[in-house]
What does this fold into?
Amino acid sequence: MAEKRDYYEVLGIKKGASESEIKSAFRKKAMQYHPDRNPGDKEAEEKFKEVNEAYSILSDPEKKDKYDRFGHAGVDPNAGFGGGGGFSGGGFGGFEDIFSDLFGGGGFGGFSQGRRNGPRKGQDLQKHVDISFEEAAFGVKKEIKLTKNVVCDECHGSGAEAGTSKKTCPVCNGSGQVQSVQRTPFGQFATSRPCDRCGGTGQIIEKPCAKCSGSGQVRKTVTIAVDIPAGVDNDSVITIRGQGEPGSNGGPNGDLYLVMNVKPHKLFKRKGNDLWIEMPITFTQAALGDELVVPTLSEKVQYKIPAGTQPETVFRLKGKGIKGLRSGKPGDLYVKVNLEVPTKLSAKQKKQIQELGESLSQDSYAKKKSFGEAMKELFK
It folds into this structure.
């Protein structure tokens, strides 16, 4: 499969182009490669699709940001970044709304209106899912409840009462459009507009289904089983194909995008696939060294710190982090030790600490000694 071209290159603009520059470049390229201007030209058709895909990403601020940071992987749902590049429904489906916005709804040769009675992909849906820190790290099976439109089980999506069917619109004869001719000082002009009788679909329902009122869809709460993979992070997006709302006129269902909300952990913080934890240690442990019992997400491990360990020293436990979503390679666990100064001392304990302090020479405190020498140099 050929590697995708850079979206900015496709539209002939530089990275950082403004919204108006992106729109203007798209308008020019779309007009250049539109099928009505290049009948039977497969290369122009492919370029038209490529231009559409580029515009669908760069015109969306969120998708554009992900593309600028991660390239094509950032807008590929299968890559875990979420977003979803390209145009919906295959062919030119999904493009007509953008094209209508730019060219006023008429397109070339009635392109936009002429496809109203063709297959249309259903609406994509998005839902936020709350998961725990551990579920994000190890993966989990979840049952997601979702309220959405589904195909009416009474009419099976036709919108017509059981035992009846849709009829060809007698006004437009199934084309979905009606034409009118206007006489002007410059000659006659023919214009097309959606048929008022059928709403541009080319078909009418004489006896609408009582359950869905002729829409072919009803609102329903459904439960969907989802496998959330190990390694997802906050704002990771999982794409569930075909679990959006139903398509129309035989078009495919939309997709469902699940956005992860990962709850914070009491002990751990996550940076990419690495974990960080802060552990309090005593003066005795820091001065003499000790074998610490360090928690990980799955077990307790022992780690020996050396004598003379200083506050905020960071130790690395290799491979004790979170497995990468795509690579499967685990990150590391970083342990930052914080010296805890004892409180609520008895008189005896205070005296013992005092005696210990007096017994230590300046050489026991290298940093303090260096600081003192610098002060002397400053004020001599």
Remarks:
- The radius of gyration is 33 Å.
- Residues 42-58 form the longest helix (17 residues).
